[in-house]
Specification:
There is one protein chain. Strand 4, helix 2 and strand 5 form a beta-alpha-beta unit. This protein has six helices and five strands; from the N terminus they run E-E-E-H-E-H-E-H-H-H-H. It has a single domain, classed as Ribonuclease H-like superfamily/Ribonuclease H (Nucleotidyltransferase, domain 5, 2-Layer Sandwich), CATH 3.30.420.10. Helices cover about 45% and strands about 20% of the residues. The C terminus is likely disordered. The protein has about 200 residues and is an alpha/beta fold. Strands 3-2-1-4-5 form a five-stranded mixed beta sheet. The longest helix is centred in the last third of the chain and has 25 residues.
Length: about 200
Amino acid sequence: MKTDKIILGIDPGTNIMGYGAIHIVGKEIKLLGAGIISLQKIKDHPMKLKHIFEGTIELIEQFQPDELSIEAPFFGKNVQSMLKLGRAQGIAIAAALVRNIPIFEYSPKKIKQSVTGNGNATKEQVASMLQKLLLIKNLPHYLDATDALGAAMCHHFQYSMQNINNNSANGKKKFSGWKSFLSENPNRQISVVKKSN
């Protein structure tokens, strides 16, 4: 079990792409940074995809992640919007694959469930919980950034629970979920470090 790794979360979009990076050090979770890449001024769709690819590569170079967690496109009524969102996600995934970074995909419902305990939570509720978990003083203006941070945290929680369940085979206690794990481990440390400029 690797206890020192960096996870980059991506919330794909063709107008705004959110990102959030966390560093897992033992039992601590450190916030490395969160923000958005704005694509609103780019009118040509292929050029948006080019900027998504280049932007993802830049994020990888900045944060040096061990793994990338990305939000899966949700199914909506607008087929054209879904197609564009799927392309945006695919381009971000391709950028990570070029740099040999493992990809993990989670549905919006799964991310909300992992972070808040409620798969139907609002984006604002996800942001509020992340603020508490990571001791964030000022939340990012765009919820796309906290959605991406949620994807990173979701992957960390899933990874942690998988290892906890695996350890139960060795006579260690098995937990039913993240909340039960926290209730049995009240001294679990969560800290934050400021992103250096």
